[in-house]
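R.M. (postdoc): so does anyone remember the format we settled on? I'll just put the structure tokens first.
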């Protein structure tokens, strides 16, 4: 998008934000879990009136302006996901949104290269809390000390959530054992309710608690907030399920910072299935050596899965894990098409397959689509962010690559005679 067009959209969004001053804007930020939290907060607040929210995972600056432009007078809330790409990246979006409610999920290492330290990441995210007015609300994760410390920057009321006994809204008896989904008991004051969700993974309990706490903070009864969560589907590619050919795939392939790998493996560990398979693509945002990290992840997966597969240019980095007692169950493929052929030969009805990778780098969804549709695209350098089932090139084979011909030397000039 051209810079001139971006500036035009930003100016129009700022003008429109002033026109919809009666709408309560909610900002959601953090290192991970933002999109799921945003969706759950929007579902809860919808019990109080009409809500606009960030579409999908579009949390970059120019998408913030587009979301603001979608707000209409008479709506109750706008829930805006805010992503930070580096120091100062939240300044303009926060100034545009002018949030009355700030929700912070956690502080992690997924933007390690941009912020260098966790404190640097926390400092950027804290700007959202500091922007809340005196009559506003901050909803903070009591289990993350860097998030909890942001309470000192809030001029308004602070609500906390988590597993901590000191949290205003806390969870107990948290379970998630596929095919059963996440459920828990939520307590606030003397009240308690059973929460049942459509989500996979105990780590999503914090997203649920953040949404419930937000609802309570604006006056929604606990039972209504809990009921609003029951029908919310997982965000696509965030431990969402799809069945193809009798096999259930748990898709967690939108992005793969190391911080998110452990929770995905935990979903596989607690699942009840005849056979479990884990497929990994490109992992990111980690410290230390690449080979050490990939091998460590492979060992963790072999502890819980019957078969572990790594795909892509980094696949062989996990080779040290072949010393694991189940090392024979570890397979590597440089090409996704070869991994698909292997799965076609070995998968059986009833199997549970975890897909963990980066959409931009791996396009692991093609392993699912190959079981149900005619596939022609196995490009390895696509770099598109959209999922393959929405891509017009899915059934278009890539053009053959031609070797660059050697340049033909120019004919020598004839001597003048």
């Amino acid at each position: 998008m051209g810079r001139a067009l971006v500036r035009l959209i930003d100016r129009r969004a700022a003008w429109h934000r002033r026109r919809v001053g009666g709408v309560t804007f909610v900002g959601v930020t953090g290192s991970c879990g933002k999109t799921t939290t945003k969706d759950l907060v929007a579902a809860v607040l919808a019990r109080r009136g009409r809500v606009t929210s960030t579409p999908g995972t579009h949390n970059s600056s120019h998408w913030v302006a587009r979301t603001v432009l979608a707000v209409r007078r008479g709506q109750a809330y706008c829930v805006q996901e805010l992503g930070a790409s580096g120091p100062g990246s939240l300044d303009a979006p926060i100034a545009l949104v002018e949030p009355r409610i700030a929700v912070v999920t956690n502080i992690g290492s997924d933007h390690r290269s941009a912020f260098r330290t966790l404190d640097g990441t926390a400092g950027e995210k804290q700007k959202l809390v500091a922007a809340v007015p005196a009559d506003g609300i901050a909803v903070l994760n009591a289990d993350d000390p860097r998030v909890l410390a942001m309470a000192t920057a809030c001029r308004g009321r602070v609500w906390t959530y988590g597993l901590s006994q000191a949290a205003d809204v806390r969870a107990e008896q948290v379970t998630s054992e596929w095919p059963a989904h996440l459920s828990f008991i939520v307590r606030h004051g003397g009240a308690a309710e059973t929460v049942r969700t459509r989500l996979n993974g105990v780590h999503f309990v914090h997203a649920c608690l953040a949404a419930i706490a937000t609802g309570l903070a604006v006056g929604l009864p606990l039972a209504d907030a809990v009921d609003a969560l029951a029908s919310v589907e997982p965000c696509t590619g965030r431990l969402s399920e799809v069945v193809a050919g009798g096999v259930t795939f748990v898709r967690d392939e939108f992005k793969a910072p190391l911080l998110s790998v452990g929770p995905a493996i935990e979903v596989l560990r607690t699942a009840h299935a005849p056979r479990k398979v884990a497929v990994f693509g490109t992992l990111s945002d980690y410290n230390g050596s690449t080979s050490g990290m990939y091998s460590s992840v492979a060992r963790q997966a072999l502890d819980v899965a019957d078969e572990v597969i790594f795909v892509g240019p980094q696949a062989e980095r996990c080779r040290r894990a072949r010393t694991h007692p189940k090392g024979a169950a570890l397979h590597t493929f440089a090409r996704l098409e070869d991994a698909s052929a292997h799965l076609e030969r070995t998968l059986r009805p009833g199997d549970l397959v975890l897909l963990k990778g980066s959409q931009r780098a791996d396009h692991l969804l093609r392993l699912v689509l190959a079981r149900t549709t005619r596939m022609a695209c196995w490009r390895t350098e696509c770099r598109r962010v959209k999922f393959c089932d929405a891509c017009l090139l899915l059934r278009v084979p890539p053009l053959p690559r031609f070797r660059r011909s050697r340049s033909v030397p120019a004919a020598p000039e004839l001597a003048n005679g």
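R.M.: ...and that's the designed sequence above, right after the tokens. Also worth knowing: The longest strand covers residues 169-175. The chain has two domains: 3-229, 240-390.
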